[in-house]
Design a protein that fits this description.
Elements: H1 12-37, H2 41-67, H3 72-77
């Protein structure tokens, strides 16, 4: 199931997926900001791990989308950035 352009969901499953994607995007953007502007080495390491994991997940989504013949717009809607 693909939620195109993250429009407001209609059923319970879509709402949970929509909330999860939005939470991951917020976490990713905060991690990028802290990674860029922090001077605390432990914080930089933890935010690097978050950004790294999201990038790995994005690569997995792209590979799986290509494998299952999804359109580029459907693949893009599932990426976190």
């Amino acid at each position: 199931m693909v939620i195109s352009n993250l429009k407001e969901p209609t059923n319970i499953l879509e709402k949970r997926i929509w909330n999860m994607l939005n939470t991951e995007k917020i976490k990713y953007n905060l991690a990028k900001r802290f990674l860029r502007f922090s001077t605390d080495s432990a914080l930089v390491y933890m935010t690097y791990k978050i950004v790294y994991q999201v990038e790995i997940d994005n690569l997995k989504h792209i590979i799986e989308g290509l494998r299952y013949g999804e359109t580029p717009s459907q693949i893009e809607s599932m990426l976190i950035y």
